[in-house]
């Protein structure tokens, strides 16, 4: 029997993150409490920088399969890894922010203490910090890296679970409004576990259809037999349901507003973008590599899902009077816009015809611009406070830009980018994503998407209006952020501007990274 | 061996689990229903492994067991936390986050 081969060179970023998780757990056990926070933040940041360096060094290497064909390290994988690590870095800086909370992070000091109990008060008095979020964070990020790289359905399932389990826990760890946070964790967990079960049964049916878990083998079985067996369709449907759940598309969106509102804001910022990138990456791989042969069956269905997602995300967002919840509905609407790009599959397998923008690059560019604006908006959200806690109600935001013009201007930039106004990154993202669908023959869907992009613009602009033209709310404190949040806001603002003004180099970068290895 | 009976059984188990998840109010029972769905998937895995004559499906069943165990650890921790706070594990009581 031959021992399995493991291509350490190709999977170096994963190895770095695994080692970081192990190191962080050891630190949790042995390093004294008062230095732990600094050490944990350092490990998380350095490991991600190192992983990012490995991704960059191997950028132009020949695409290949690693670990006995379980992972496929190709152009899209490297691009998604780079994006995940960049947004992961931004999110972990928000995790580490202490100055905004008056010297404490956004996480409960003693998560197992009952809210309001003596144990909790003692933990707060002792200025304890929950540093276990850092290993949990690295673990979730590891799962996110595995998920879109997985070349067979079983690895994909394992990646999905590594991603989800730490996120369930992190959702329940908010320092303030802990009941809401715990409720968010329960809702996310129950529905997430249900979607895992769907994914698994779908995997079982696809395995029954093709006799293998490998995506390329499923594709080969589809080409071999001309009749679409019920097994294939049911399996593909169930797997898609799980993926649509993870990206928060209607009708599997019901958890999104509640979980985004209840979870600590750094966690929300993390999962709003990183989970979406990983899930869309995996979804594209499944659709294009394994199910490309039945794309006439899934394209129209996904187009319908995209329409209802955009309708619900934009209309329900209009009536929200809580900024955090509004951003949650905006995330649903944006999932719809991204699905528009997914549907316009130009050439399956690559999602790219020569010289044209394809689904894969369109989706990834959209996710990048959306992620920059969204992370920045969540970072600013943490600085607007009342009585020590975050004030997310729109009343607290009255006249914010008059009191703090610089912060107001940056928030306006993020909101304009989310709305897709020209000269911001969001415009480029929408342009490329919708072009992909247009060229794929889905002009009617693009018209729908543009109409609903206008509706979402209405609620972003409402916040801008309130910030500039309302009498300032003097009960609101706008806290000066510490360096981690400062870096996040600066990077997001610069990224949004650069992608909006000189998108050329980024578009080339994305277009080159659009070919899935089959 | 005719696999149809096994596939039908596993589909029935899966639907029962889904039904249980949708109608039961207790978080623990709803969670048990999800475990039933995972086991339904396991049954199809081993059946299809037999049909195709390879071991992939049987290996998958072990993966599922490990992942299900990990999920139980996280899930019970969350349900315990909720129960200690509110003295109830009913999913209908968790209604602070509503529109």
UniProtKB/TrEMBL annotation, chain A:
Keywords: Cell membrane, Membrane, NAD, Quinone, Translocase, Transmembrane, Transmembrane helix, Transport. It catalyses: a quinone + NADH + 5 H(+)(in) = a quinol + NAD(+) + 4 H(+)(out). Residues 150-451 form the NADH:quinone oxidoreductase/Mrp antiporter transmembrane domain. The keyword NAD applies. It is an enzyme of class 7 (translocase). GO terms for biological process: ATP synthesis coupled electron transport. Pfam families: Proton_antipo_M (PF00361). The chain crosses the membrane at residues 6-27, 39-59, 79-96, 133-150, 156-174, 186-209, 229-249, 270-294, 300-319, 331-352, 364-384, 405-429, 441-461, 482-506. One of its GO terms (molecular function) is quinone binding. It is a multi-pass membrane protein. Its EC number is 7.1.1.-. It is found in: Cell membrane; Endomembrane system; Membrane. GO terms for cellular component: endomembrane system; plasma membrane. It comes from the Bacteria. NDH-1 is composed of 14 different subunits. Subunits NuoA, H, J, K, L, M, N constitute the membrane sector of the complex. NCBIfam families: NDH_I_N, PRK05777.1-4. NDH-1 shuttles electrons from NADH, via FMN and iron-sulfur (Fe-S) centers, to quinones in the respiratory chain. The immediate electron acceptor for the enzyme in this species is believed to be a menaquinone. Couples the redox reaction to proton translocation (for every two electrons transferred, four hydrogen ions are translocated across the cytoplasmic membrane), and thus conserves the redox energy in a proton gradient. Belongs to the complex I subunit 2 family. This is NADH-quinone oxidoreductase subunit N. It comes from Propionibacterium cyclohexanicum. The gene is nuoN.
From TrEMBL, chain B:
Its EC number is 7.1.1.-. It is found in: Cell membrane; Membrane. GO terms for cellular component: NADH dehydrogenase complex; plasma membrane. Coiled coil: none annotated. GO terms for molecular function: NADH dehydrogenase (quinone) (non-electrogenic) activity; quinone binding. It is a multi-pass membrane protein. The keyword Transmembrane applies. GO terms for biological process: ATP synthesis coupled electron transport. Keywords: Cell membrane, Membrane, NAD, Quinone, Translocase, Transmembrane, Transmembrane helix, Transport. The chain crosses the membrane at residues 6-24, 36-53, 59-83. The keyword Transmembrane helix applies. It catalyses: a quinone + NADH + 5 H(+)(in) = a quinol + NAD(+) + 4 H(+)(out). InterPro entries: NADH_UbQ_OxRdtase_chain4L/K, NUOK/Mnh_C1-like. Belongs to the complex I subunit 4L family. NDH-1 shuttles electrons from NADH, via FMN and iron-sulfur (Fe-S) centers, to quinones in the respiratory chain. The immediate electron acceptor for the enzyme in this species is believed to be a menaquinone. Couples the redox reaction to proton translocation (for every two electrons transferred, four hydrogen ions are translocated across the cytoplasmic membrane), and thus conserves the redox energy in a proton gradient. NDH-1 is composed of 14 different subunits. Subunits NuoA, H, J, K, L, M, N constitute the membrane sector of the complex. This is NADH-quinone oxidoreductase subunit K.
């Amino acid at each position: 029997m031959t021992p399995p081969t493991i291509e350490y060179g190709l999977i170096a970023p994963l190895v770095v993150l695994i080692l970081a998780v192990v190191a962080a757990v050891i630190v949790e056990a042995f390093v004294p409490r008062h230095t732990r926070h600094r050490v944990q933040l350092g490990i998380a940041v350095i490991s991600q920088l190192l992983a990012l360096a490995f991704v960059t060094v191997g950028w132009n290497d020949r695409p290949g399969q690693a670990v006995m064909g379980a992972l496929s390290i190709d152009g899209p994988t490297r691009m998604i890894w780079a994006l995940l690590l960049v947004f992961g870095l931004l999110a972990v800086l928000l995790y580490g922010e202490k100055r905004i909370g008056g010297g404490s992070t956004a996480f409960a000091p003693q998560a197992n203490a009952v809210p309001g109990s003596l144990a909790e008060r003692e933990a707060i008095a002792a200025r304890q910090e929950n540093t276990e979020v850092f290993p949990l964070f690295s673990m979730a990020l590891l799962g996110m890296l595995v998920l879109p790289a997985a070349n067979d359905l079983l690895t994909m399932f394992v990646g999905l679970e590594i991603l989800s389990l730490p996120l369930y826990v992190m959702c329940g760890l908010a320092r303030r409004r802990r009941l809401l946070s715990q409720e968010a964790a329960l809702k996310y967990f129950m529905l997430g576990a249900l979607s895992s079960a769907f994914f698994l049964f779908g995997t079982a049916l696809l395995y029954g259809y093709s006799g293998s878990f490998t995506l390329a083998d499923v594709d080969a079985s589809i080409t071999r037999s001309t009749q679409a067996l019920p097994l294939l369709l049911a399996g593909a449907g169930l797997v898609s349901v799980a993926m649509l759940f993870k990206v928060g598309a209607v009708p599997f969106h019901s958890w999104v507003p509640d979980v985004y509102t209840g979870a600590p804001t750094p966690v929300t910022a993390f999962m709003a973008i990183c989970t979406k990138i990983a899930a869309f990456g995996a979804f594209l791989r499944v659709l294009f590599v394994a199910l490309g042969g039945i794309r006439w069956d899934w394209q129209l269905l996904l187009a319908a899902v995209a329409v209802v997602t955009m309708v619900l995300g934009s209309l329900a967002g209009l009536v929200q009077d809580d900024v955090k919840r509004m951003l949650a509905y905006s995330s649903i609407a944006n999932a719809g816009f991204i699905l528009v790009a997914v549907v316009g599959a130009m050439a399956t397998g690559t999602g790219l015809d020569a010289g044209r923008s394809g689904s894969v690059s369109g989706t990834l560019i959209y996710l990048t611009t959306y992620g920059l604006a969204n992370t920045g908006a969540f970072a600013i959200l943490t600085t607007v406070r009342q009585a020590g806690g975050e004030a997310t109600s729109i009343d607290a935001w009255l006249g914010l830009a008059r009191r703090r013009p610089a912060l107001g201007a940056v928030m306006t930039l993020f909101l304009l980018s989310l709305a897709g106004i020209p000269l911001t990154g969001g415009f480029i993202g929408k342009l490329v994503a919708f072009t992909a669908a247009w060229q794929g023959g889905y002009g009617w869907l693009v018209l729908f998407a543009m109409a609903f992009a206008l509706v979402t613009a209405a609620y972003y602009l409402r916040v801008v209006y309130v910030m500039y033209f309302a009498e300032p709310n003097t009960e609101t404190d706008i806290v000066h952020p510490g360096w981690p949040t400062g870096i996040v806001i600066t990077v997001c603002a610069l990224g949004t501007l650069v992608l909006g003004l000189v998108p050329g180099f980024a578009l080339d970068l994305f277009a080159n990274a659009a070919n899935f290895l089959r | 061996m005719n696999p149809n009976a096994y596939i039908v059984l596993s589909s029935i188990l899966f639907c029962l689990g889904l039904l249980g998840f949708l109608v039961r109010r207790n978080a623990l029972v709803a969670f048990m229903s999800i475990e039933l769905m995972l086991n339904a998937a396991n049954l199809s895995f081993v059946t299809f492994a037999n049909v195709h004559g390879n071991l992939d499906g049987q290996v998958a069943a072990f993966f599922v067991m490990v992942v299900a165990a990990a999920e139980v650890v996280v899930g019970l921790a969350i349900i315990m936390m909720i129960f200690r706070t509110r003295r109830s594990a009913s999913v209908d009581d968790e209604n602070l986050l509503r529109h």
